Amino acid sequence: MNFQLLGVNHKTAPVEVREQLAISDKKLADALRQLMSVPGVREAMILSTCNRVEVLAHSTNGSADLRQFLREHFGLAPSSFEPHLYEYREIDVVRHVFRVASSLDSLVVGEPQILGQVKEAYATARAAGTVQSYLDLLLTRAFAVAKRVRTETAVGSSSVSIASVAVDLAERIFGSLRGKQVCLVGAGKMSEIAARHLLARGAGPIFVANRTYDRAQTLAQRFGGSAIRFDELYEHCEQADIVITSTGAPVAIFRREHGERFLSRRKNRPMFFIDIAVPRDVDPEMNKLAGIFIYDIDDLQEAAASHAAERSKEAERAERIIEDEVGRFHARLQSLHVVPAIVSLQDYVETIRQAELDRVRGRLGQLSPEQEQALEALTHGIVNKILHTPITRLKSAAAGPEVTTLIEAFRKIFNLQDKGTEEKASVKTGVGSGSRSR
Q1: Which of 153, 181, 337, 342 has its CA 20 to 30 A from that of 108?
Q2: How many Cβ atoms from other residues are within 10 Å of residue 343's Cβ?
């Protein structure tokens, strides 16, 4: 199987560690190419979100040094991130990927954004050429598993997301959001979800700032708000009671001096920041100012806990689905090991069939089309009946411990050439760039 996964998430690492390992969308393709240069890595994908950074690989022997990539790409001292890493191999990677895509490993269980983020990471890796056969098979199956979890359980029945939990927290702080002015910094999906929840609870007016002004205008118009240019953010932001920020900027865009200026102009009226960006948009130093309240992605953990109890039973059902799908996927992968032997056996017998037909045709003379068809049908039928039992035996043994011995015996008995590369198996089973099994 040779799957490997190395990562950090909201359970193992605080936001100050995760933000050091975050990879922006613009740099993801370059990071993938660097990851592919690690000895032994044959396929690779990187998932980088506000709650996790994970490096997924299919390697030659299952022992590629993924830590080497983290050390070299980020230039960090290993002691700063290695204590927070988790690592999975083989079938445990399959289980983890299925759980992540199904939102069972999320900060808010059942939130819908993670599946979209996994699909985006997959699309980037496909475009970069770093996902081809086995990771393609794993990810496309993960998407199907996530769909099954959504269809057969109610784990995602209510509209819960990190953004909606952030709005819950704002309402808890203010008591009521009615009439509270809101500034959305960043016009991405998170901001859009936050705006929808804020308006539903009476907040407004809303103004939107984004580095691309057109996107800010589009989002602002959608919710009856107004757009401001990003370079004018600090002149307008002081009007907001609530600032929800999620920009993906590499460094903090709100610092202590900005907070001091805002409080002075607001005559010390409190200001509430919800920072759902990783890396963080708000410098923690701002939290030391009286009247400035900041909640980052890790602070949402407590608010998210209130959703856990009501979803626990549905999550248990989802976990059973995951285990069922892991077993199926494992059986399918195991069957790939016997495909090269089956293909070699079929090629060997077909070569004999064709040779014998050519020899017999020379003695039979000119045959009519009907006779040719009958001869082909007869010999194909004999070959298929002879091959049925050994092929069935190979397939049934695919998931068992004896499969390697059995394959080797087949090769020796029939003097088969070794065509047992994974690429051969992927071509014959439809796994690879041309396959789609969603």
Answers
A1: 181
A2: 18
Question: SS in 3 state form for 173-227?
Answer: HHCCCCCCCEEEECCCHHHHHHHHHHHHCCCCCEEEEECCHHHHHHHHHHCCCEE
Q: Which conformational region is residue 2 in: left (phi greater than 0), alpha (psi within -120 to 50 degrees), or beta?
A: left
Identify the residue whose tokens are 């859009």.
192
Handedness of CA 24, 111, 12, 142 (dihedral sign): negative
**pLDDT for residue 95:** 97
Helix (H) or strand (E) holding 254: none
pTM, two decimals, is 0.71
- CA–CA gap between residue 86 and residue 340 (Å, rounded): 34
The label of the residue with tokens 């009247």 reads 291
- CA-based angle 160:161:163, to the nearest 5? 125
Q: How far apart are the C-alpha atoms of 232 and 40, rounded to whole Å?
A: 49
Residue ranges and CATH numbers for the domains of the chain are: 3-156+310-328 (3.30.460.30), 162-305 (3.40.50.720)
CA distance 196 to 231: 25
CB neighbour class for 414 (10 Å; exposed up to 12, middle 13-18, buried from 19) = middle
pLDDT at 168: 79
Place of tokens 């809101």: 182
Partners of 227 in beta bridges: 208
Sign of CA dihedral 154, 158, 161, 165: negative
Consecutive 10-residue runs of the chain (438 residues): their mean pLDDT? 92 92 93 95 94 94 89 92 95 96 87 90 96 93 94 74 76 84 84 81 89 90 90 90 89 94 88 89 92 85 63 84 92 74 82 87 83 89 88 72 72 69 40 38
Residue 182: both structure tokens together: 């809101």
**Active site positions, annotated:** 50
CA dist 429 and 76 (Å) reads 42
Sign of CA dihedral 341, 395, 3, 56: positive
Transcribe 55-103 into DSSP letters: EEEEESSS---HHHHHHHHH---GGGTGGG-EEEETHHHHHHHHHHHTT
Terminus-to-terminus CA distance in the chain, angstroms?
Answer: 21
